[in-house]
């Protein structure tokens, strides 16, 4: 899972989460929403790599991407604080 675009996304999630950069992480995830949708079959393999205590925002975003299309897209379901 460390290779390719999802590997790059996981690295960014790890880096931003460790630095507690949640607003930049949210923006990054929103920019990568199409990538997540394109790789839906692989997302079940991504979730176990993440830690619920450290990567909650990313896990919620990925879980929202897994929802059926008639449900609100993750970028609309999760917005930056104060909006």
What secondary-structure arrangement, pairings included, does this model have?
Layout lengths: L3 H15 L3 H10 L1 H6 L1 H7 L9 H10 L8 H4 L6
Helix pairs in contact: 1-2
Task: Briefly characterize the structure.
The chain has 83 residues and is mainly alpha-helical. The chain contains six helices and no strands.
How would you describe the overall organization of this protein?
This protein has 83 residues and is mainly alpha-helical. The chain has helices at 4-18, 22-31, 33-38, 40-46, 56-65, 74-77. Helix 1 (4-18) runs antiparallel to helix 2. The termini are far apart. The model has no long low-confidence stretch (mean pLDDT 85).
What is the chains' assembly state?
single chain
Q: Number of helix segments? A: 6
> Which stretches are low in confidence, meaning pLDDT under 50 for 5 or more residues running?
none
Number of DSSP E strands: 0
* Structure classification: mainly alpha
Mean pLDDT: 85
Shape: globular
Measured as a percent range, the helix fraction is: 55-70%
The major beta sheet can be summarized as: none
User: In percent, how much strand structure appears in the residues?
Assistant: under 5%
Distance between the termini: 34 Å
């Amino acid at each position: 899972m460390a290779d390719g675009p999802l590997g790059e996304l996981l690295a960014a999630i790890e880096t931003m989460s460790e630095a507690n950069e949640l607003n930049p992480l949210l923006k990054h995830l929103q920019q990568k929403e199409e990538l997540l949708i394109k790789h839906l079959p692989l997302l079940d393999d991504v979730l176990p790599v993440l830690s619920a205590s450290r990567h909650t925002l990313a896990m919620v975003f990925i879980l929202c991407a897994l929802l059926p299309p008639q449900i609100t897209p993750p970028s609309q379901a999760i917005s930056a604080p104060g909006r």
